[in-house]
């Protein structure tokens, strides 16, 4: 077996390393992203207007919530504005007082109700939601009714 000469080895190393070096020094191209606006509301899905944000220090949070098929979440309220996006499945939100219901499907966003007792009910498959909350540090984003278990 013949060994590479020092000259050939240096040439081979330069050929192999050059593309890596140029890739690392090329600045990225400036481009704008494509925004698909999923939700812009000043009221919840059931028509209740949002009054105001909390007056305490804000804290944003995001939850990915997976709910089994043929399930109903416990009755609960949210003290802060929040929004949901259905990643998978369907979710029917039920308002306890008015009896209003609305079903959201995969790819749909919804504005959750604030201080209205409600729950979500799934369909034939599991439902996966992405939930965002505009809350306050140390305060719950979901409050179960007395005697109900936590939503998550």
From TrEMBL:
<feature type="domain" description="Cupin type-2">
    <location>
        <begin position="66"/>
        <end position="131"/>
    </location>
</feature>
<feature type="signal peptide">
    <location>
        <begin position="1"/>
        <end position="23"/>
    </location>
</feature>
<dbReference type="InterPro" id="IPR011051">
    <property type="entry name" value="RmlC_Cupin_sf"/>
</dbReference>
<protein>
    <recommendedName>
        <fullName>Cupin type-2 domain-containing protein</fullName>
    </recommendedName>
</protein>
<dbReference type="InterPro" id="IPR014710">
    <property type="entry name" value="RmlC-like_jellyroll"/>
</dbReference>
<dbReference type="InterPro" id="IPR013096">
    <property type="entry name" value="Cupin_2"/>
</dbReference>
<dbReference type="Pfam" id="PF07883">
    <property type="entry name" value="Cupin_2"/>
</dbReference>
<keyword id="KW-0732">Signal</keyword>
